[in-house]
Each structure stands twice: as C-alpha cells, then as structure tokens.
C-alpha cells in the first residue's frame, strides 16, 4: 500500500470511529474515551458496538411493526453503522490476536 492510500484508510477509520463514539439518541455515555487503561478502552469500545447493534435492531423491528416516523433510510443507515463498527471491532480483535501470537512466539 502506498502512503497516500494508508493515510486515506486511516482517516476513514478515524471518521468511522468518531461516528461510532457519538451517543445514540437518548443514550448517556458513562465513560469518555481516553480515560483509564487499555482494558477499559477495549471494554467501552465493545459496549459502544453493542449499543449500536441494539439500536439498529430496535429501529428495524419498529419499522417492521409499522411505527410512524421511522423511515427505511434511517434503518439502513443505522444497520450500516452497526455493521461497520462490528467489522472494525473484528479487525482490532484479529490484530490483537496476531500481536499476542507474535509475542508468544518470540525467542528470548
């Protein structure tokens, strides 16, 4: 990958992370990003992904039930946000597992 491609991908990931970090309507964020250690950041990221998926599922079920003021495009956008956040979480997990394996295979 060339340097501009890497920069572009990094900017896209940061933009998606910023969107995923935004609170969902009616949601109160208990912890702010940047507080605590790696474990707490990982846990809060997983919780944000879970909240996005739950909100998307709830909105999809409400749309299917025919509730007013819920548009199909809003449902699709929320589903995509949840999907992208989940995929990003899976990539982070895969990188962590790879790094762990690399460290464990190191010769002393």
TrEMBL record:
UniProt KW Ribosomal protein keyword: no
PANTHER family assigned to the protein according to its UniProt record, in alphabetical order: FLAGELLAR HOOK-BASAL BODY COMPLEX PROTEIN FLIE (PTHR34653:SF1), PTHR34653
Organism name: Vreelandella aquamarina
Alphabetical UniProt keywords: Bacterial flagellum, Cell projection, Cilium, Flagellum
One MF annotation (Gene Ontology) recorded for this entry: cytoskeletal motor activity
An example Gene Ontology biological process: bacterial-type flagellum-dependent cell motility
InterPro entries registered for this protein in UniProt: FliE (IPR001624)
Stated family: Belongs to the FliE family.
GO terms for cellular component: bacterial-type flagellum basal body
UniProt name for this protein: Flagellar hook-basal body complex protein FliE
Ranges in coiled-coil conformation: none
Compartments reported by the entry: Bacterial flagellum basal body
């Amino acid at each position: 990958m060339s340097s501009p491609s890497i920069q572009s991908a990094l900017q896209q990931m940061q933009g998606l992370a910023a969107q995923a970090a935004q609170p969902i309507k009616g949601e109160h964020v208990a912890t702010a990003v940047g507080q605590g250690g790696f474990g707490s950041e990982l846990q809060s990221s997983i919780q944000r992904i879970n909240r996005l998926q739950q909100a998307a599922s709830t909105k999809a079920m409400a749309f299917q039930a025919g509730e007013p003021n819920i548009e199909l495009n809003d449902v699709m956008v929320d589903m995509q946000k949840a999907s992208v956040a989940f995929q990003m979480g899976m990539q982070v997990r895969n990188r962590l597992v790879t790094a762990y394996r690399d460290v464990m295979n190191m010769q002393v």
